[in-house]
Amino acid sequence: MTDVLRRGRLQLLLLAVLFFAPLLAAVLLYFVFPQWQPQTYTNYGELIVPARMLPAAPLLDADGADAGGTALHGKWSFIYLGAENCDAQCADKLYQIRQIRTLLNEKRMRVQRVYIAPDGAALERARAVLAPEHPDLRYYADTPAQDYRRFFGGHDPQALYLVDPLGNWLMVYPGNAESKGILRDIKRLLRFSQIG
């Protein structure tokens, strides 16, 4: 009976060691030996650390009415800040994000493309020019105080901003970012995220 009891305790102790050893190793590697943490990242875009909530100010729709505080919630959003007029670079960027969204296949419904014009007049001009080629593009005008331009400001004018379905700004892509890298990032996010 004592041999069976000793063997049972030894098995229990071995199971406890097998369970707690990886946890202890992870804590030691993270807190005690941070120099062993990887210095490279797998994301292509520039990660915003910590993620920042979008401004509380509502975007304006084509009629100048409040589009609602949750216009950018519920889906992953690629946001492009348009200028007074959509030039060739603007058209190229919108085409790029349309192609990226198309390549997501069945998951494309979880992603939306958003064009934010500086004001209502620029929104009308952009919509008149872009709507035939980009019927699924969502058009908004910035607030009179330019809250969204100030929030995202300081980046390349052709930058692309990625916002999660909860309204957190997660990443920024420079104007010269390649579609392959952006597509890889959004596919990874959609695979691991259950929101949106």
Structural commentary:
Helix 3 links the parallel strand 3 and strand 4. The radius of gyration is 24 Å and the shape is elongated. Helices cover 39% and strands 18% of the residues. The chain folds into 2 domains: 35 residues; 147 residues, 3-Layer(aba) Sandwich (Glutaredoxin), CATH 3.40.30. It has 5 helices and 6 strands; from the N terminus they run αββαβαβαββα. It has a 6-stranded mixed β-sheet. The chain has 196 residues and is of the alpha/beta class. Belongs to the SCO1/2 family. GO terms for molecular function: metal ion binding. It comes from Fontimonas thermophila. Pfam families: SCO1-SenC. This is Cytochrome oxidase Cu insertion factor, SCO1/SenC/PrrC family.
CATH domain class of the largest domain: Alpha Beta
| Subunit organisation of the chains | single chain
How many discrete domains?
Answer: 2
Helicity, as a percent range = 25-40%
End-to-end C-alpha gap: 58 Å
* CATH architecture group name of the largest domain: 3-Layer(aba) Sandwich
CATH topology of the largest domain: Glutaredoxin
User: Average pLDDT value?
Assistant: 89
Question: In which order are the strands of the major sheet placed?
Answer: 1-6-5-2-3-4
Q: Low-confidence stretches at least 5 residues in length (pLDDT < 50)?
A: none
**Helical element count?**
5
Tell me the major beta sheet: 6 strands, mixed
The portion of residues forming beta strands comes to: 15-25%
